[in-house]
Design brief:
The chain is α/β, with parallel strands linked by helices. The longest helix is centred in the C-terminal third of the chain and has 23 residues. The chain contains 14 helices and 30 strands. Helix 7 runs parallel beside helix 8 and helix 9 runs parallel beside helix 11. It has a 6-stranded parallel beta sheet, with helices on both faces. Strands 12-13-14-17-20-23 form a 6-stranded mixed beta sheet, with no helix packed on it. Strands 15-18-21-24 form a 4-stranded parallel beta sheet. A hairpin with a 4-residue loop joins strand 29 and strand 30. The radius of gyration is 25 Å and the shape is globular.
Length: about 500
């Protein structure tokens, strides 16, 4: 039977869509390939929220089709998801080796279309049309040994978005809001729990808008809170989460649910995007800074131990130093437990992309004297001036980063990490625990600590391993204390020499 490989870019919604497509294909007799090279079908489930995500998928497809041609292989190649929806036929026009373009309301057609392509009945298929009731087709899960068993599962409860934030392409790629019934969602959750799932995350573009048009409020409770209550009654389900919400969805009924539903996890991700009322209006967010902080106060009163996370956009068109200062002051006031920081990415056909006073790319990346996360902006977190922030940064408590740092990619900090001045933190690094690192060092991608000092076998006498790609030395974490002490000794020697020269 055909072997299929699916690579996913973007959010949890995309991950869930990919899983559903994989489950549908497995049910039709397909097997899941371990790699692109071993597959008869390669599907890229794409994201359009930022240009970087689109470029990654396009470059990946170019690489895959080029390698297949070189090796004289002829797998079926396809794009799915948001970029497929947005670009449609243009993808095949630009990449003629692509065979399938599947829009966001057509995931359930994947098996049907792939059968036609593999059999030779059709040469190319592009389907990005709307389809009624498509929101109810994302319900299959990889079970029966076809995937690693997990205590957690995603459940898609709705599709689409009616908010039309001026920076966001999602309403144009996902369509208008369409919600499943509570009964259908609960049935899917029950099935998952019967197979060992203990935690369920309810997914939607704006999950708190669930059922607004279709399910009337009851006893002062919105459709979404009614769904939470129904899920809470499922025997064997221990934890309920949801993402992504909108601040407008945090009514008193939802805040009260945090106080009275123990299975609802004590965490709330509430994207604020900016602390400036002027920018919030330009973004078409539908709330003010005062409204947002009021929600936070109510949540902490209802569930004192609750963790609050957020999203922030830096460099939105027309943003001034004063606007940015208001965002920093909001972060200090709220003391978020976590924040995802994004530089503004213009998306085609969105109102913000046509707004005047576009912030230059250089300014968006190099936040300058007012660092993107300034001193104390996230409670105990400190990131010094001159910081460069690129793409997504995930910052937790008790982190200190020195001046003139460069932060790139999906970096995660936790615990009591401290990095000295002039550090570079490379893409997708994760730093945890009580790590402390001295001056002029580099933390490398998926490694221990990659030192920015060329040497052979040692760095300042500390054993090191060469990294072929970067030509730098990787220092094992257990050697860090020695390295730090020696670097500080060198600093003292340099300082003594300067003092002597001055005398």
């Amino acid at each position: 039977m055909p072997r299929v490989f699916i690579k996913t870019y973007g959010c949890q919604m995309n991950e869930r869509d990919s899983e559903a497509v994989a489950a549908q294909l497995v049910a039709k007799g397909y097997t899941l390939a371990a790699s692109e090279e071993a597959a008869d079908v390669v599907l890229l489930n794409t994201c359009s929220v930022r240009d970087l995500a689109e470029q990654k998928a396009l470059n990946k497809m170019k690489s895959l089709t080029g390698m297949a041609a070189k090796e004289r292989r002829t797998p079926v190649f396809g794009f799915m998801g948001c970029m497929a929806q947005s670009r449609g036929q243009k993808l095949i026009d630009e990449l003629p080796d692509v065979d399938l373009v599947l829009g966001t309301q057509k995931f359930h057609r994947a098996a049907e279309y792939l059968d036609e392509l593999l059999s030779g009945a059709r040469e190319k298929i592009v389907d990005v049309a709307e389809e009624k009731n498509s929101e109810a087709t994302i319900r299959e899960h990889l079970l029966n040994g076809n995937a690693k068993k997990s205590v957690s599962a995603f459940v898609s409860i709705m599709q689409g978005c009616n908010q039309y934030c001026t920076f966001c392409i999602v309403p144009y790629t996902r369509g208008e809001e369409r919600s499943r019934t509570i009964e259908d969602i609960v049935a899917e959750c029950n099935e998952l729990v019967s197979r060992g799932t203990k935690e369920i995350t309810l997914l939607g573009q704006i999950v708190t808008s669930y059922g607004k048009r279709d399910i009337p409020a009851r006893d002062g409770k919105s459709a979404f809170v009614q769904l939470l209550e129904a899920a809470h009654e499922i025997e064997g389900l221990e934890r309920i989460r949801f993402t992504s919400p909108h601040p407008k969805g945090y009514g008193d009924d939802l805040i009260d649910a945090y106080a009275r539903l123990p299975k609802l996890c004590e965490s709330a991700h509430i994207p604020v995007q900016s602390g400036s009322d002027r920018l919030l209006k330009l973004m078409h967010r539908g709330y003010t800074r005062e409204k947002f902080t009021g929600i936070i106060r109510k949540l902490r009163a209802a569930r004192p131990e609750i963790g609050i996370s957020t999203d922030i956009i830096v460099g939105f068109p027309g943003e001034t130093d004063e606007d940015f200062a208001e965002t920093l002051s909001l972060a200090r006031e709220v003391e978020f437990d976590m924040a995802y920081i994004f530089k503004y990415s213009p998306r085609r056909d969105t109102p913000a992309a046509e707004m005047p006073n576009q912030v230059p790319q250089r300014v968006r990346e190099e936040v300058g004297a007012n660092a993107a996360i300034d001193r104390g902006a996230l409670g105990p977190t400190v990131i010094g001036q001159g910081t460069k922030i690129d793409n997504l940064v995930h910052v937790a408590h008790n982190v200190t980063i020195g001046r003139h740092c460069l932060i790139m990619g999906q970096v995660g900090f936790a615990g009591s990490t401290r990095l000295g001045d002039y550090c570079v933190i490379a893409s997708q690094s994760g730093i945890a625990g009580h790590l402390t690192l001295g001056n002029q060092a580099t933390v490398g991608a998926k490694s221990g600590v990659m030192c920015d000092i060329p040497d052979k076998g040692t760095v300042l006498g500390i054993p090191a391993l060469p990294d072929k790609q970067t030509k730098r030395q990787i220092i094992a974490l257990q050697h860090l204390p020695d390295l730090i002490r020696r670097m500080r000794d060198l600093e003292k020697e340099v300082a003594d020499l300067k003092a002597g020269a001055g005398a």
